[in-house]
């Protein structure tokens, strides 16, 4: 798993946080099309944090180059980020475990992100409740516990 940080060109504040959900969705689509998994994305006006797995067949540098090129074109053409001029040539990429980076990403969490996260955590907690149920194993009915 990688925690990737990309900054805007010259650290300019060109990412409108009111429109960033469009950018995040676009990046999610790029990552999915590369057979990778996006765990979390967030950021502010001058940089983004991306927590993702990268498919073993893709080199990290190629992944980031493709991500920057695609998002630069998309951001310049969509109209949501009129002052965006591009990404910095440099980036940060760190291998990590999920909890470490997740905590850092939450530092940039907006109120809407917080509400969504809390609702999802509540839903997950409710669906992970253990229930007693009848389960069939090898044509034998046994009493067991199933996670829903």
Question: Strands, helices and their partners?
Answer:
Blueprint: E1 2-8, H1 20-33, E2 37-44, E3 47-53, H2 60-78, E4 87-95, H3 98-106, H4 111-127, E5 130-137, E6 140-147
Antiparallel strand pairs: 1-3, 1-4, 2-3, 5-6
Helix pairs in contact: 1-2
Quaternary organisation of the protein chains? single chain
| CATH architecture title | 2-Layer Sandwich
Number of helices: 4
Q: What string gives the helices and strands in order?
A: EHEEHEHHEE
Counting DSSP E segments of at least 2 residues, the number of strands comes to: 6
Broad shape: globular
Low-confidence stretches: 129-148
> Mind describing the biggest β-sheet?
4 strands, antiparallel
Share in β-strands: 25-35%
CATH superfamily (homologous) name: Transposase IS200-like
Strand order of the largest sheet: 2-3-1-4
Total domain count = 1
Whole-Å distance between the termini? 27 Å
> Could you say which structural class the secondary elements and strand pairing correspond to?
alpha+beta
The CATH topology assignment is Alpha-Beta Plaits
Secondary structure: helix percent: 25-40%
Overall mean pLDDT: 79
What's the CATH C level?
Alpha Beta
Our Rg estimate from Cα atoms comes to 20 Å
């Amino acid at each position: 798993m990688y925690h990737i940080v990309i900054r805007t060109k010259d650290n300019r504040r060109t990412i409108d946080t009111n429109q960033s959900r469009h950018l995040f969705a676009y990046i999610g689509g790029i990552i999915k099309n590369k057979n990778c998994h996006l765990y979390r994305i967030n950021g502010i006006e001058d940089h983004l944090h991306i927590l993702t797995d990268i498919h073993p067949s893709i080199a990290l540098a190629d992944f980031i180059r493709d991500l920057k090129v695609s998002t630069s074109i998309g951001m310049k053409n969509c109209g949501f980020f009129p002052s965006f001029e591009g990404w910095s040539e440099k980036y940060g990429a760190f291998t990590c475990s999920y909890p470490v980076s997740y905590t850092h990403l939450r530092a940039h969490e907006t109120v809407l992100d917080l509400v969504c996260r809390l609702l999802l955590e509540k839903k997950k907690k409710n669906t992970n409740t253990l229930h007693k149920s009848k389960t069939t194993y090898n044509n034998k009915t046994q009493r067991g516990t199933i996670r829903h």
